[in-house]
Design a protein that fits this description.
Length: about 150
């Protein structure tokens, strides 16, 4: 198993925690030098905070621990393609590498809806997409199917 798969499995575990809490199952893990610095899941409903996406929560925690809003040398793993807000946060935090699972056709700001990281920004992020995409997609689809079935 590759490091990308190993850390994405941890992000999937976080997504399942989010699902159990009634949140949209998206999980994220931030890694530096092979060590997990932060892991969390989406929590906008419980926190009543529209910015409480898994990526933002992980970046906030890792920056607080590092004592710096810049996170050089880090890799962010997330089960779903980030939205525009989260892509902006990655750029501001100077995260060098993003690894994500499933594409997000409605809000994805990396490759699906908008290609924000291709804009002439002051920081470049290397992107690896499709890591455990099927598992990430299936988790999300099952969550929304169950919500529709409940009415």
């Amino acid at each position: 198993m590759s490091d990308h798969e190993r850390f994405m499995r941890l992000a999937l575990e976080q997504a399942r925690r989010g699902e159990a809490a009634g949140e949209v199952p998206v999980g994220a893990v931030l890694v530096v030098d092979g060590v997990v610095q932060a892991a969390d899941f989406n929590q906008p409903m419980a926190s009543k905070d529209p910015t409480a996406h898994a990526e933002i929560r992980v970046l906030r925690f890792a920056a607080a621990v590092a004592g710096n809003y810049r996170l050089p040398g880090s890799t962010l793993y997330v089960t779903l393609e980030p939205c525009l807000m989260c892509v902006g946060a990655l750029v501001h935090a100077r995260v060098p590498t993003l690894v994500y699972g499933a594409p997000e056709p409605k809000f994805g700001a990396v490759r699906s809806l908008v290609r924000a990281l291709e804009l002439p920004l002051n920081h470049r992020v290397e992107v690896v997409s499709g890591v455990l995409a099927d598992e990430s997609r299936e988790l999300l689809q099952a969550f929304f199917r169950a919500r529709r079935d409940r009415g």
